[in-house]
Design goal:
Length: 146
Amino acid sequence: MNGFSTGEEDSRGATDQICCLVDEGERCSRPAGNASYSKRIQKTVTQRRLKLNLDQMARHIYICDYHKQVIQCARSKQQQQRRRKDSEEDSGETDNDLPEVDLFQLQVSTLRRYKRHYKISTRPGLNKAQLADLKPMLINWIKRTV
């Protein structure tokens, strides 16, 4: 070698490396891919209580495609659980969570459109003050739809 690299040696060098992880007390013997066992991945493994550890004798931190997939699945399950939990918390909204809207600031035509759109039955010929007083009905409709 004269110090010049064509890149072929670099791409072939990783094929002799095996996964750096110890899975349930046994060193993984699969070939290592290009995914590394970073601090963020270690945190995911710890949080999800996966039985994976970094082999202290390994001279690299590359993991095999199998363990990469296991960790990605664990991460996606964690995200799904978090989304489900967030949506459950959001469904328990109260009246205080809704923004306060002053219907008196809206035009009469807008209030009539809301009344027509939300199918609120009233007597014909309501003025602006009477239309704005439909706020409780609108809030109930918003709660049902949101």
